[in-house]
C-alpha cells in the first residue's frame, strides 16, 4: 500500500477497500477461514456454522424505505443468506453519540425488532457504548450473525462459478444508494426514491429449493453490482458477461444517476441477491424469485465464460462489449 | 426512563446503562436468550454455543499495557470465557476516521493478532467502514465471538450463586481504568500504571479443571467490581459480602484513586475474573488461579449469603458493613 493515511475510499467497497483488506488485515490475521473472504465465514463447530459481521454508519440514519436499524439487521441476515445459511442468532452493538434522542433510538431499535421478526431470527446479545458529542455521528451499529448450514448440500461459495452458469439478479439495482444520497443531499426527484433494504433469507430459501446446487450467491452492497461481479469473477477464476439491457433499473433511479453522473452499476443495494446457477436450473430459479415478494423483477442478466479469467464484461445496449471494472474511488460514502 | 437524550452515563456500565438496556433494548428485543443478560448469549445450534459482542471506543487508543486492538480481542475472549465457553471464532468490525495513519492501524491489527494467538482463536470475518474526519474518533472496533460449551457440565451463569459459596477474585483491581485515565489526562504518578488487559481463557480453563461446578464467572469491566458483584447478586437473588482488606489493589493505583477521589471498586478491569464456587472448592480454585500467570495475586474476597437478596455488602477495614452499590454516574468514560 502506498498510502500513509486512511481515506474515505478505503471504506467504499472498491479497489482501495480490497487493498486495505489484503495489504493490512490479511497480512496479520491470515487463516484459512478468513482467507476465503466470503461475506460470512464458515466454521466447523459440531454443526457447520456461518459467521458474519458488519458495521453500519449510514448518514442520514432515517431514509425512505428504512433506517440504520433495519439496514443493520438486513445486511447481516443477507450475508448469512448468501452463504446459504439460516440465520439463528444476531448480536447488536451500539456506539451512541451523547445527546442522541431516545425517541430516535427507540425508533431505530423498533425497526430492528421488526426486521429481525421478518427474518425469523432473534437478537440474543448486545452492547452499548456512549461517546462524547462530536466523537461519533449520532449512532453506529455493528451487527454480527450466526447461521446454520445444511449438511445436505455444498454451500454456495464465491469461488464456485463455472463456465456455462447463468447469472440471475433478483431485481432493480441502485435503489438503496440513491435513496440515501437523495435524502442526505436534499435532492428531490419527480417521485421519492425508496431504498430496497429487505431481509432476503426467504428469497434465498426459494432459490435453494429451486436449485439445491446454486454455485454462488452474493448481495451486491457497497461498490454495487460491478464490485460484486468482479469479486465473484476473481474468486472463481472465470469471466462473467452481463447484458446492460437485462439489468433492471427503476426509471427514477436511472434519471437520478444520469443527472449526477453516477453509474448505477456502482451503487449499493440492500435488498438484492445475485445467484449464479447451472444453466439447466436458470428458469426454475428465475420463476422462484419472481414468485417471491422481493424478487418480482428478477432477470437472467448474463452467463459465466471461461476467459478472460477474473474479468467482467458488459454487453452494452448498442451490442459492444466493455470491461466492467470495480469502482476505485469513493462514489457514495456512508450509504451503509 | 425519564431522560429524553443519551448521556455519557448511559454507557458507563452503571445504573443508567441498566435502565437503557431494560427500558429500551429489552422492551423491543425481548427473547429468552437475550433476557438472560449474560455477557454471552447461549445458543442451541447442534452443539451449545456462546455468542457475545462488544464495541471498543477507548481513548487514547494506545495506553500502557495495551491498545484498542488488544482490548477488543481480550474483552470478547473474556466474555466467552466467563460463560465457560472455549472461544472458537472472532469477528472484527472497524469504523475508521478518515486520516487515521496506516502505521497506527497496523500496530492495532498486529496487537489483535498477538492477543488472538495467545487466546488460541482466529479472527475469521470482518468489516471496515470509513467515515469523514470529525464523524468518529480515530478508530472504533467491534468484536464478536463464538464459543463452544462443554456438554458435560452445567455452564457457569450469573444466576447460579448460592448461599455458602466463596467469592474469588483473580488479582488486583482498577489497573486498566486508571492506566487509561492517567494516559489520557497526562497524569504522571511515581511509576507508570499498566493496564491488566489479558485474554483469560487459559485462567478460566484452570478454574474449571479445579472446580467443574463453578457457579458464576464474570470479568469485572465497566462499572468495576462493584457493578459486577451487584449484577451477580441481583440475578442470583442472593447477598454477596466481600471484605475490603481482601481485595488486592496495587499501591500506585490506590494512591492515584485517592488523589482523584475515585473508588477503585468502581474502576474497570480488563484482565480479571470473579469466580463464585462451592465453598469446598474454594481453596482448589484459589491455588489453580495462583498457579496461572494471570492469577498470581488471586484472593478469596468474600462469600454468598441468603439475604438481603440482591445486595452487596462491603466489610470495611474497620470492621463495619456498608452497602456497596452500582456506580450510577459516569466515572471514567471511554475506558473500553
Please count the beta strands of chain A (DSSP E, at least 2 residues each). Answer: 14
Largest sheet of chain A: 7 strands, mixed
Q: Topology as H/E string of chain A?
A: HHEEEEHEHEEEHHEHEHEHEEE
Q: Quaternary status of these chains? A: homodimer
How much helix is in the residues of chain A? 25-40%
CATH level 1 class label of the largest domain in chain A: Alpha Beta
CATH superfamily of the largest domain in chain A: PurM-like C-terminal domain
Mean pLDDT of chain A, as a whole number?
Answer: 92
How far is the N terminus from the C terminus of chain A? 25 Å
The largest chain-to-chain contact, stated as pair and per-chain residue counts, equals:
A-B, 83 and 83 residues
- The assigned structural class of chain A equals alpha+beta
Shape, per Cα inertia axes of chain A: globular
In spatial order, strands of the major sheet of chain A run 9-11-8-12-10-13-14
Radius of gyration of chain A (CA) equals 19 Å
Named at the architecture level, the CATH assignment of the largest domain in chain A is: Alpha-Beta Complex
Strand content of chain A: 15-25%
Catalogue the unreliable spans of chain A.
none
